[in-house]
């Protein structure tokens, strides 16, 4: 499930966190794989059903994480757009005020 785009970099303080887009791409891959396992996995006994339930939990967790990251991204985009509109209407602000 690798995207082949490693945007992390090692610094003197250790590795940096991956970029949001990389995390979203990994979550998308994980969601697709979990969904495939839930839809196409064969259930022949109780143990297989436990495995399927694990994939369902993984799918729900990944979907929730994806949703939260997208919401945060949307909020940041809205904030930037609002600031641009404020600047357009009121002009540049003095950062000391």
Structure report:
The structure is a single chain. By secondary structure, this protein is mainly alpha-helical. The chain has a domain at 16-82. Helix content is 68%, strand content 4%. It has a two-stranded antiparallel ribbon. The chain is elongated and about 70 Å long. The relative contact order is 0.10.
Indicate the topology.
Blueprint: E1 10-11, E2 14-15, H1 20-40, H2 46-90
Helix pairs in contact: 1-2
Quick synopsis:
The protein has two helices and two strands; from the N terminus they run E-E-H-H. The protein is mainly α and 97 residues long. It has a two-stranded antiparallel ribbon.
Strand-pairing-aware structural class:
mainly alpha
| Alpha carbon gap, first and last residue | 49 Å
Rg over CA atoms, rounded to whole Å, is 21 Å
Q: How much is the average pLDDT? A: 80
Question: What labels describe this entry?
Answer:
single chain, 97 residues, mainly alpha, two-stranded antiparallel ribbon, 68% helix, disordered N terminus
